[in-house]
Amino acid sequence: LEENQISEEFAAGMEAFSFKTGSQILSGEGGNVAYSPLSLYYAIALAGCGAEGQTEKEVLAFLGMEDKKELALQCQKLYQGYYYQQQMDDARNKQWGEDSLAVGGTKEDKIRIGNSLWISDELSVNREYQTLAAQQFFAPTYVVDFHQEETGKKMGEWISRQTEGVLSPQLSPGKETLATIINTLYFYGSWSDAFSESLTKEDEFTGEDGVKRKCLFMNQTDRQGSFMKGDGYTTSFLSTNNGCRMFFLLPDKGRNAAEFLASPELLEKGLTEPEGGWTFGEVYWKVPQFDFGTDMSLADTLKAMGLERMFGPEGEFGGISSQPLKITNVIQQTHIGIDENGVEGAAYTMMALARGGMPD
Q1: Does the chain have fewer CB atoms within 10 Å around its N or its C terminus?
Q2: Residue 76 Cα to chain centre, angstroms
Q3: pLDDT class for 102, splitting at 50, 70, 90?
Q4: What's the CA gap between 191 and 339, in Å, rounded?
Q5: CB-based burial of residue 149 (10 Å sphere; 0-12 exposed, 13-18 middle, 19+ buried)?
Q6: Are 323 and 315 in contact, with CB atoms under 8 Å apart?
Q7: Contact 34/292 with Cβ under 8 angstroms?
Q8: What global pTM score does this model have?
């Protein structure tokens, strides 16, 4: 674990990426949206490690990194860090004579990243790129025929295995596709202080449209809680047994969530630990149970944010193949839900590559 600490540059770049893309995507979609910046980051990073020239520069700047070798190394360390942490937690539970399930829960605390390459039998991929994908992104390569419906089915089954069955998409990559990059993310964290099911009661939730809806609310009082009073909002968090926190931002009366999604700066301020530290006191939690997912196409959003070159005929992916390639689509599917025992989230991001323009 000590050998796999990520660099400050990588952490800062990923955080800036998260709030920059998060503000753009969450404020632009409307309604309830679940988005995984980590899943999108990994997919772009794996593609970017095969980019060259101006395309490489655009990708690195977008991800907040200066060198693609360092980018690959940091992605490797983050992956391995989660993997070794899981091993250590399992060994500790075994030593203490406990199983790894939360008390009263039914699922194992877990953070799992997955990557894979799906290559058309019509495309010749550089051996060096396949080696980098395998050794630093832990991505197996599958040679397939994108003209066959069976290929989309196999990709969906791979995603389902990686996300514990939470996501089981029906994929149709398209006959023009020559390669796809897929990232998956699965998370389950049991609450450090689980909610009592006996305190879960039906009540009214008022949406931003003013409509009141009946739903189940989980209730709990934390007499030594942590919170932050911001400009027009209050933020607090619930801790999980795998060392993570789920932040909640509650707008003041007369304010709405959209205001805090409008800019990366406001989003970051509302959803990070305050510089002056937390205020400690009694926090009363009254949280609606929820369970929903989102399907998004992100190509236009990424173009609008500056990643234009890799989608055009001038895209430079010579590190992947000598054949000209361009990104044709980026899709992400997510799911998140909370109950009395914990929070579960899953995501996959798929980038499709097709034949690009002829080189000069």
Answers
A1: C
A2: 16
A3: very low
A4: 9
A5: exposed
A6: no
A7: yes
A8: 0.94
Let me know: does 266 contact 259? Beta carbons within 8 Å: yes
For residues 64 and 11, give the distance between their C-alpha atoms in angstroms, rounded to a whole number: 9
Choose among 75, 51, 30: nearest CA to 209. Answer: 30
Long-range Cβ contact pairs of 80-84 (< 8 A, separation 24 or more): 80/4, 81/1, 81/4, 81/5, 81/6, 82/111, 82/112, 82/113, 84/1, 84/4
| Average pLDDT estimate for 72-80 | 98
pLDDT tens figures, 131-189: 999 999 999 999 999 999 999 999 999 999 999 999 999 999 888 999 999 999 999 99
CA contacts within 13 A on the Cβ side of 127? 0
Q: What is the pLDDT of residues 279-330, one digit of tens each?
A: 999 999 999 999 999 999 999 999 999 999 999 988 999 999 999 999 999 9
Name the residue type at position 321. Answer: S
Residue that the structure tokens 């593609």 belong to: 47
Helix (H, G, I), strand (E, B) or coil at 45: helix
On the 0-12 / 13-18 / 19+ scale of CB atoms within 10 A, 356 is buried
Which tokens is 307 given?
A: 């990643």
Specify the residue for token string 């993997």: 83
| Residue of 339, 336, 222 lying closest to 281 (CA atoms) | 222
Alpha carbon distance 267, 258 (integer Å): 10
